[in-house]
Amino acid sequence: MELATERTVSPPTLGGVKVLGLHKSYGKHAVLHDVNLEMTEGEVVSIIGPSGAGKSTFLRCLNYLEVPTAGTITIGDSTVDAGARRPDRACLDRLRRVTGMVFQNFNLFPHLTVRENITLPQMKVLGRSRDEANAVADSLLNRVGLAAKSEQHPARLSGGQQQRIAIARALALSPKVMLFDEPTSALDPELGLEVLAVMRDLADEGMTMIVVTHEMHFARDVSDRVMVMADGRVLELGPSEQVMTAPTHERTKKFLRAVLDR
Amino acid sequence: MFAQIASGAGMTVVITGASLLIGALLGLPLVAARRSAWSPLRALATGYIDIVRAIPPITWLFLIYFGLPQYALRLDSVSASIVGFSVIASAYMAETYRSGLLSIPRGQWEAATALGLKFLPKARYVITPQAFKVTLPAVAAYAISLLKDSALASTIGVHEITYQAGLASRATHQGLLAFSIAGLLYIAMSVPLAVVARRVDRVLRRKLEVA
Amino acid sequence: MTFVDQWISWLPALTPGLGVSLTLTGLCLLFGMPLGLVLALMLEGPVKMLRAAALIVVEVGRGAPALVLLYLLYFGLPEGGVTLSAFATGVISLSWTTGAYASELFRSGLAAVPAGQREAALTSGLRGWSGFRYIILPQAVRISTPPLASLAVTIFQTSSLAFVIAVPELMSKAYALGSITFEYLSVFALTSVLYGSITLLALAFVRLAEQRLSRHL
Does C contact A via 3+ CB–CB distances below 8 Å? Predict the structure, then answer.
């Protein structure tokens, strides 16, 4: 995989993330106000907060599923300047190439088998041969514990299994950063656990991850830092232990009380 | 030429309108039978609907117009086509009603039953208003397709648009023009139906949301 | 059971017509379905001219009765200097009808592919044509298949209209037989049985295939 370096803006360590002054508004209605986030390679950040806080929007801006109104996004050595009217196609491609995304509702391709879900993007995007792609798929399926399901169609699998496959599909393109958009919200708690276990392994192996989540245990125990958002703003961002046990912001205290004391 | 072809529009409307009306009425007992708890009746209604729809309209018209006189039931071409299209419309309307009923969530029936509503008030106040919203656009869509099917009446000599276009084309040797006019007339006639359906649909939806 | 004997004796006169009806239907599907897909892509595509052209073809194809289209081409093509057999005219005309209706079904199939699939394709790096070709289109085609199959059955029924331009299909043969025997009721009843049984069989097959298809989705 080649990553051309055309524009380099004070790069964070390779594989890191640097988001500066991200704004997003629909017409007059602003949904993200000046969001900043810097991460080093291998770091895991959880984003928590009440619904409607802009957590998912922020995450989806990072790979341009939503187009931010202003700000710059640097991931690895790819920078996209949202101020530009139409972002450069090549920059966008690189941004999406270095990020992998896991959706709340999996979004596996239902017409393809599990194996094809993982091999097709490799062959079409990275130009790998079928054999290479298959080898990668097999090792990833082993890693998420689903080697036996490779020839099935996604609809036959449980939600937890589908989500683990979705993670494998994203990993197959060797992303520098993994984006998780409420990966366990559509799952029964028990099935959520198997997905969280895979994510925990991934974090232990040094993957850079940004996780929008309602799983407070994951936020506290697995992630290095926690970012709390409300009303499109970052309320606080700090080491997990500190944010989760001794938050400084009143709004954060209220939110944590509401989710922890039930 | 336009005047001649347009002179058939009245007959096209009569055949479409009459068949739609009769079909809409016949469709009611038909859908009741189709959803009956008594399985022989249900099978009969289902069989009728499936068989009627499985036979091409032109075959129905010929069966009625050329076939029935053998048993002394001689219908003029207009009556024959209204009878034929009414039979066809009844089957399609029954299916339209049925999908309207199916679109109502089970919970609505259950809630109405739990509240102690008997069949008629349940149908009258809970189900019909909701089914109506779904059914009306489908009825309009069917009306448009019936309008186009009515062109077949020309094959048994009904003086409607297509028949007049045929006469005009033979008289002037300008078939391309004659049938272009006919085609555009049908399209023009279906536009108001489509617009009305959309508007009624929107008004009804708004009403339901407010209520 | 005289009428059964009668029907059996008539069958040889009608079956060639049924063959023509089925051939006509087959050819219309062969040309009409790809035409429908192309029209749908033109309608969904970014090029304004293509969109406008496709819109006219589709709106006339769906808005005017199939019978009128048939007459239009039958009388219109020779006036434009193109002389084709009645059969070829029937194929062209009914393919137009098929394509117009199919394009709408393909379009609603495309619209029915969940937005998340497009996003997942994008985040997997499959953008533009390759995302469309490998992710969106196969799902859209699969979603459109049951209604397209029903359309195919409808087209079989519509092929009966070719009677009016003297294509020797089932309806023509039946009419000819009726005018010889004067047993119109019985002849058209038999014709109805032929059309009806093929249609019902085909629909049953469509329903079965639909169930098998939907297992993966």
Answer: yes
